[in-house]
Write a structure and sequence with these properties.
The complex is a heterodimer. Chain A is built from 12 helices and no strands. By secondary structure, chain A is mainly alpha-helical. Chain B is α/β, with parallel strands linked by helices. The longest helix of chain B has 16 residues. Classes of the chains: A mainly alpha, B alpha/beta.
């Protein structure tokens, strides 16, 4: 395990796309949250009655402990960036034919897929660290007095990691099966941004509840919209509470799907001709 | 001699194309073993199977007379088909990965192999900036890293200039003298003949022959002889008998005898007694190229 980690680090540490991705994540996570934070400030800062009403209704979603939830939700919009890196890392192995060379040099086929699982875990971990840093930063910046409540919603940290890891696993599966970077990226973007959204919307419209078990919907359900989303009337409250009550099912479903994908990859790689 | 690799009845098909048909052979420890065959004969497929890159449809193989295990491949320095490295990494970084996976070599050994393959000056350049010949030399360097017990080289001289080819040939001879087993597939029959102790010849997935180079080449004795009067000489040989065929060349005759039956002294004496004085008498060895074409031409 440690040896696989060291070898993957040798491959990644001088890969320019890795550092580009890291840089962009470091900009986009604070960026998207800053955008919503400034909207929040705008609608709550005035002295009008509407501003006060908005403040009462929304609370401060960027103060502790709600910051862990809010920042996780907004940051998760950008899973696309690490997904591109994950797809590049596996398709590079095909392009350079190093997926064969690693086996020739003495890895087992399990070790090869294990090393890719480690890549996905490393990237998810880094994204999670970036999220934690942004959440803490906003918590302190938006309301320093709330800091004594810092430990109240820490469960969002593992939930954010799980969602990122699960969605990057799907990206890996596409890269692993498709082998060509641009085709895999195209399929990923098309499915992630278009197909599943249309399908999920359609199923919701038709009131089929199993739409929430579509691959991305499943892990999207782990991080529901911030608490203020449930404060716009009875209907929103009801749907927020329902989403919260289903989180544990979504977590179990996500763990199952993610484990299944890795199991399939391990099995395929064990039998596949690496030609 | 102990077999370092035993291949037992391996078959492999790609759809309707039978790439290997029930191939069995043994590679002795310490040999320089050439695997020959025209394009598409199954050489690379066979090498890929014994490296677990491809799965055989049937048959088995065993390295070091032990049950198959990935760790065995760490003892084998391999160049299979093309140099496979991370394009964005330098030669040193790529060899660090080879070292980390295989456990062969060290930082000093990396510098040493880069010196052997003459890449020291470019060791920090990215692999993507290398010429074809430099990429090939790096792949040979990776195979040599940490002095593996076996070298498995598929077309090692691809992309090399004549000087590079000669250097690799010398290197292989030097390594063979140290007792390293070398398995080599090549189209360059002349090269193979110069360096190999054993050969196997494949055609359309079928093993045509295998054994020591001498065994494979010498299934008959060839005597080349000449005299002032070739027709008299031919009569003389026909009288003596024992041959399997006679081939008339422009200024000489080639007489083919069953293996081990040509007696040059008796032949010379017989011709002399019949009043024919020889001005040429040679025991010729068939070249590997001739043998290869004999076996592989339809």
């Amino acid at each position: 395990m440690i040896s696989l980690l060291k070898i993957e680090w040798l491959k990644i540490k001088k890969y320019p796309a890795f550092w580009w991705m890291l840089g962009i994540v470091m900009l986009t996570y604070p960026g998207i949250n800053l955008m919503f934070f400034s909207v929040y400030k705008e609608i709550t800062q005035g002295k009008e009655m509407a501003n006060n009403l908005a403040k009462m209704l929304l609370g401060n979603p960027f103060a502790f402990p709600e910051t862990f939830h809010t920042v996780a939700y907004f940051s998760s919009f950008f899973v696309l960036l690490p997904a591109i890196l994950v797809i590049m890392l596996i398709t590079n192995e095909y392009q350079y034919r190093t997926f064969r060379q690693n086996i020739i040099d003495g890895w087992s086929r399990y070790q090869f897929i294990g090393s890719k699982l480690i890549d996905v875990a490393i990237i998810s971990f880094i994204a999670t660290l970036a999220y934690i840093a942004v959440a803490i930063g906003f918590g302190i910046y938006s309301d320093a007095l709330s800091i004594n409540r810092w430990a109240e919603q820490l469960e969002y940290i593992p939930l954010f990691f799980l969602q990122t890891f699960a969605q990057l696993t799907i990206a890996f599966l596409l890269g692993y099966l498709v082998k060509k970077a641009f085709i895999a990226l195209g399929v990923f973007l098309f499915y992630y941004l278009i197909v599943e959204n249309i399908l999920a919307g359609y199923l919701k419209y038709k009131q089929f509840s199993w739409g929430r078990f579509l691959p991305f919907e499943m892990s999207d359900g782990i991080l529901v919209a911030p608490a203020f989303a449930g404060k716009f009337g009875d209907k929103s409250k009801e749907s927020y509470e329902l989403a919260i009550s289903l989180v544990y099912q979504q977590v179990i479903g996500t763990i199952f799907l993610t484990a299944l994908i890795w199991f399939i990859c391990f099995k395929i790689h064990q039998k596949r001709n690496l030609g | 001699m102990d077999a370092i690799l035993s291949i037992n009845g391996i078959s492999k098909a790609y759809g309707s194309i039978q790439a290997l048909k029930n191939v069995s052979l043994e590679i002795p420890k310490g040999s320089v073993f050439g695997i020959l065959g025209p394009n598409g004969s199954g050489k690379t497929t066979l090498m890929s199977i014994v490296l677990d890159i491809l799965k055989a449809d049937s048959g088995s193989y065993s390295w070091f007379n032990e049950p198959n295990h990935p760790a065995e491949r760490k003892r084998i320095g391999t160049l299979l088909e093309t140099p496979n490295f991370y394009h964005y990494l330098s030669a040193v970084d790529n060899l660090n990965i080879t070292h980390a996976i295989s456990g062969r070599g060290s930082a000093a050994a990396i510098d040493e192999v880069l010196e052997i393959v003459k890449l020291t000056e470019r060791k920090k350049s990215k692999f993507s900036a290398y010429s074809l010949g430099m990429k090939q030399r790096l792949a040979i360097g990776a195979a040599l890293l940490g002095n593996p017990e076996i070298l498995l080289l598929d077309e090692p001289t691809n992309g090399l200039d004549p000087v590079g080819i000669a250097e690799i040939r010398e290197l292989i001879i030097r390594l063979a003298q140290k007792g390293i087993t070398i398995i080599i597939a090549s189209h360059l029959l002349d090269e193979i003949e110069k360096i190999c102790s054993h050969v196997a010849i494949l055609k359309r997935g079928k093993l045509l022959t295998t054994g020591t180079v001498d065994e494979v080449l010498s299934n008959e004795d060839i005597i080349e002889l000449s005299a002032a009067n070739l027709s008299e000489l031919k009569k003389c040989i026909q009288e003596m008998g024992g041959y399997s065929s006679i081939k008339e060349l422009e200024k000489s005759l080639q007489v083919f005898y069953p293996i081990g039956t040509a007696n040059m002294e008796a032949l010379n004496q017989h011709c002399f007694n019949r009043g024919v004085t020889l001005n040429l008498l040679l025991h010729k060895k068939k070249s590997l190229e001739t043998k290869f074409f004999e076996l592989t031409n339809d």
